[in-house]
Amino acid sequence: MKLGLFRIEQLLSQMGNPHLGVKFFHVTGSNGKGSVTTFLEYLTHEHGKSVTGYYSPHLSTILERFKYNTVPIDETLFVDALEVVRPHAERLDQFGPEFSPSFFEFVTAMYFYITKKLGAEFGSVEVGLGGRFDATNVLTPEVSVITTISLEHTNVLGDTVEQIAFEKAGIVKPGKPVVIGQMPEGAKNVIKQIAQERGSKVYEYGKDFVAEVVKLDFNKNIYNYYGDTKIENIPVKLNGKHQLYNVAVALKAFELVLKPDEDAVRSAFEKAFIPGRFEEIEGIIFDGAHNPQAAEAFVENLDLYFPNKTRAVLFGILDDKDKENVLRFIGPRCQAMIVTRPPSKRAMKVEETFEIAKRYCQKVILEPDPLKAVEILKNSEAEVKFVTGSFYLVGLLRSYVMNGKVSEELILGGA
Predict the structure, then answer these.
(1) What domains, with CATH codes, occur in the chain?
(2) What's the pTM value of the predicted model, to 2 decimals?
(3) What is the reaction catalyzed (predicted)?
């Protein structure tokens, strides 16, 4: 991993700074950033504005990282962007490894080129990792959003919520407002301090805006929002009561930039969709929960939507994640667990995962090959079957279950 913004700044400078002149929403957070970035893209689109979205990681194809008016771009535009960025990246390569753009920096430069080429007025951008040194942090947003703060990527971001909050608050820009979700007081205080130093007004969930649950049904959830505007009976397709905070944070950020129309808001949330987020396909639920906070939300959703049902889980997690505390939540809520290896170079210690899992679940088997593992899951007698622990794993198996095969891109796996 390469920290610092000088490579992406050099790359964009050579390209004519395509990131300038666009109105951006910039979203970070330990959990919920993908949901909020998606909501903001759909909200902007439903209000008649042209908008690109930038997401990571992708599930099935790299094209999913780049959206235009809520739809992934096509291969032609992707190749065009690749060919535009490549010579500029190669020029930097000549100065040595320190100047050579990383994969994420390269792809981020492609996103800014795509946004400029399409002439999009708005962009909804999800931070890749942290905030302060993330390649997306070259942009100047209309509003910054920090969804939640919990312990994650501690080897890079720090091992306290305060240190992680400091890294994520790196996206707060001078004079630009920041919207923050539900988080520990210590993290909140760090963000407020940085915002004050930069002359940025803070809008805080529970104080400046709030949402409430009307009804929670699988794929048919209803919320009310109270901020500068009051919008009731908002239908939300994305599942989980934690979406309460994401809906509220997205709407607050949006109303700081554009005037919400009630019908457009309802339409946006009813349509907004993220593959692999508590999503059911062929009787299997796919969810990318990969840290303790997400795992806790995941088991809450299991109890909420599928109470008193027997459960089997196919679980795979990257080695740099908090395996112990993710399994501490998921293991006891399942009658059976299959441990497998996600398709990533960062998931080599599958036996270690298996040993931890045995402490938390009564019946655990090890099948390192995920395609064989999902066949075992399919044949399980459990009433609810799900795949979780890693977006790489979810992406691979979601594609396999839907199509009966997987692309070479998915078999090779991610970084």
Answers:
(1) 6-271 (3.40.1190.10), 279-412 (3.90.190.20)
(2) 0.86
(3) (6S)-5,6,7,8-tetrahydrofolyl-(gamma-L-Glu)(n) + L-glutamate + ATP = (6S)-5,6,7,8-tetrahydrofolyl-(gamma-L-Glu)(n+1) + ADP + phosphate + H(+)
